[in-house]
Every structure is written in C-alpha cells, then in structure tokens.
Amino acid sequence: MAMIMLDFTYNGTDFTYGFLSSPPNICGMEAVVAFRFLQVIIYVGALVSLLYFYGIIQAVLKRLAWLMQFTMGTTATESLNACGCVLLGNAESPMLIRPYIEKMTNSELHAIMTTGFSCIAGSVFAVFISFGACPRYLLSAAVMGAPGSLACSKLLYPETEESITKGVDDLDLPPSKERNAMECVASGSLEAVHLVTAVLASLISFVAIMALLSGIIDYAGTLIGHPGWSLEMLFGYAFFPIAYLIGVTEFEQALIVG
Asked: Mind telling me which residue stretches traverse the membrane in this protein (predicted)?
C-alpha cells in the first residue's frame, strides 16, 4: 500500500525531469538519485501539509497520544510530541506543543529531545521505501521508536514534578496558517525543498569525506605492506562483535553488517 501511494511521485518527476527520473534501460543507465528518489520528500511534505490543513493529522495524533498516555502513564505533551515525531518528524512535532514548552518540566523536555533523536520524519521514511527498504520493517521501527524513547527517557530522567498538562484533550493544536488547499500544497512543497537540499548536501559531503578517509587508510596500508585497507574494513572488524550478537553468525556476513 505504501509503495502504491509513493509511486504516484514518479508521475510528477517523470513530467518534470524526463529521462533523468526514469532513464531508458540501455547501457546500464540508472535513475539520478536527486531527480527520482529524493523527490518523494516533496510529495510527502505536500501531502502531510494538506492533511494537516483539513485537521486529519491533528485528529490522528490526539488519538495516538491518548493511547500512549493511557498505556505508559506519560504526560500529554510528551505523548503528543512522540506521536508527532512518527508522522511529522523531530523538527515539526515540537511546534505542536510550542505554547506549553515554557511550562514543561525538565523530565518532559528531556523526553522531547530523546524522542526527536529516535524517530525519522515521514518524508525521510518514504525515501527509504523508495530505495527498496521493506515498509513493514521501517514502520515497525518508527512506531516502536516512540514508546521506546519515552521509556528510555524516563529511566534516565524520571518525572519528579507536577505537569500542567493532564489530558491530551486539553491541548489546543495550532491550526494551519494557509487559507486554502492550493496554498497548503505549495507551502508544504516549498518547506520540503529545504529538506531535499539538506539531504543532497549531506550526501555529497559525507560520501566524499568517507572516500577521502578510505583513501588515506588504503595509502597507509600500502606503506606498511598491506594494500586494500579501507574504512569499511576497519568498521567491519570493529563492530563484528555487535553483528554477531544480533544473529549474524557467518564471519564474512558479520564483517559486512558490522
């Protein structure tokens, strides 16, 4: 179902970028990452903005936050923020509880920061699916990340104060600033463009730096008579025990996973 919904992105990318998005199957040509896969972020950003405009996102978040508060005993604000991180991301979800941040306890603030680092934005979630990752595994990890991060946060920083937010129904979620659906789609798309630019810049810089480090390690290995060393090989040996503990028992496979 998720793949079917995301495939509609390619109608827009094929119209805009042509063969750069869907190149012909000749001479080993492959789609350009920036023109095909990352454009899912723009599509999902516009879709989420549209759903928020009609109040669907707010209704879903409140129901999920109520369930989390009922089952885990967390406060309304941190529960709502945790659920928001699953659908919106760690940058947008704190905006839902902005009026309450100044009056939140230290434990609640710690929970918000912990939850933000444990979840990914829905648009980035869609990018992983477009790369071929299994949607069921990603969805399971994203959903489990919200209660798991709250549990870890409360273990590290237990609540010792009285929260001002007792119930989720008492929270007033800010309405959409846009005046109509078309403006909402345009605004969501423009906001997603900044995220696409950040992802592209990070990919270029990190891949280049990793290649630089691998080149330095290979050169150092050549000087001492061990050519073929790389950063991936060093990480493989360093994290081999972790890969073995999670169930990868074959040596070569454990090196790759590590």
From this structure: 40-61, 109-131, 192-217, 229-248
Q: For residue 45, which of 71, 16, 23, 12 has the smallest C-alpha distance?
A: 12
**Comparison of pLDDT for 253 and 85, the residue scoring more:** 85
With 80 as the cut, is the pLDDT of residue 23 above it? no
* Radius of gyration from C-alpha coordinates of the chain: 22
Other beta carbons within 10 Å of 106: 11
pLDDT digits (tens, 9 = 90+) for 37-70: 777 878 888 888 888 888 888 888 888 888 888 8
Q: Residue 225: left if φ>0, alpha if ψ -120 to 50, beta else—which one?
A: left
C-alpha to C-alpha distance for 255 and 236, rounded to whole angstroms: 4
Amino acid at 53: F
For residue 152, what are the CA distances in angstroms to 121, 137, 139, 149?
20, 21, 20, 5
Greatest Cα-to-Cα distance within the chain, rounded to the nearest angstrom:
68
Q: Quick check: 185 pLDDT over 80?
A: yes
In this structure, which amino acid lies at residue 79? S
Distance of CA 218 to the CA centre of its chain: 33
Residue 184 CB-density burial (10 A; 0-12 exposed, 13-18 middle, 19+ buried): buried
Asked whether the beta carbons of 81 and 118 are under 8 A apart, the reply is: no
> Which secondary-structure segment (H or E) carries 180?
none
Residue 72 near residue 79, CB atoms below 8 Å: yes
